[in-house]
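>> Question from a student workshop board

For tomorrow's exercise we were told to take the sequence and the ligand below, predict the bound structure, and bring the output to class. My setup keeps failing. Could a helper post the expected result so I can at least see what it should look like? The ligand is L-homoserine.
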Amino acid sequence: MPRKFTVKVPASSANIGPGFDVLGIGLNLFLELNVNIDPSHPKQSANDAFNCKLTYEGEGEEDVPLDPNQNLLTRTALYVLRCHEIRDFPIGTHVHVKNPIPLGRGLGSSGAAVVAGVMLANGVANLKLSKSRMLDFCLMIERHPDNITAAMMGGFVGSYLRELSASELERKEIPLAEVLPQPAGGYDTGLTPPIPPMKIGHHIKYDWCKEIKCIAIIPDFEVSTAKSRGVLPGAYTRSDLVFNLQRLAVLTTALTKSPPDAELIYAAMQDKVHQPYRKTLIPGLNEITSSITPNTYPGLLGICLSGAGPTILALATDHFDDIAAAILNIFEKENITCKWKLLEPAYDGAVMEEE
Ligand SMILES: Nc1ncnc2c1ncn2[C@@H]1O[C@H](COP(=O)(O)OP(=O)(O)OP(=O)(O)O)[C@@H](O)[C@H]1O
Ligand SMILES: N[C@@H](CCO)C(=O)O
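>> Workshop helper replied:
Here is what the output should look like for this input. Compare the format with yours to find the bug.
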């Protein structure tokens, strides 16, 4: 019997200033997979490894590999399938990807792809995994929970990885290349995929004051998360950690209150753990986070780097065009062009709809 279903996964913004690797917001920009399984069309092109034909439109269409052996989405799905002793996609699987999330810009494109890959495996093989169990699989691949949790669960979330026992650590502290061998056929060499321990990630969904909108200013260059993590120090001073913890504690509640308190939120979105180090990768970041304030721009609540950058996230209740123009202007002085989007939280997170 032919089957059709759709998977939709939101973009996300992580950190929100002081909440490095902790806070995330799912955003209403959705990676979409249209999945069609028709056993009467077993093989359609030379690239159809593992019974899967992959087609793609949108952000990344020039660069994203369409070989299921190489593509992050299908490699993730194959990892989950192999953990359930399933070798291939069902015969005649066609996955069409529509992606509006820019790659390598700090809007959680890789987190969305990983979540979508896990949901794809769950859907094609009817594994009936809960969202919480699917999160475990995602966290084996992307090992900071902020984007992944926001993409899977939606809304404004705080998350942590639980401390694992020594025997669980043996299974989790596995090189990424063993979880996601590239090509995905690496499992054929006899490697058994490492099955995730249960409940690796824990999260809480905060309320969100609905008047607060999210302005994303997206520069036209990429900064890979790996590179942006590479510039961070291995240790911090106590005063810098306390600075962030104090603000984090205030921010998670400040963003739930109506009307929002701009002075409180602006100060609570300051950070000393990642943004100061990342300004070497993102020209203009320092000026943007220090010169555009609620005093000079009414309606603005706070500004931060989105995820690992280079996108800037501004939270605001009003005057969105003026705030975006001020940020675009600073980037322009650095010869950086940008596009911008007015977004809102994606409250429901990832969804699968069967036709
Ligand atoms: N839809 C997709 N299909 C296949 N691969 C993707 C897709 N989206 C992202 N990727 C892979 O993830 C990489 C980008 O991941 P990276 O973590 O560097 O940035 P990001 O997730 O966009 O930003 P951040 O983690 O800061 O929010 C891309 O270069 C590509 O390899
Ligand atoms: N918390 C992560 C988000 C990017 O994936 C970082 O800032 O590096």
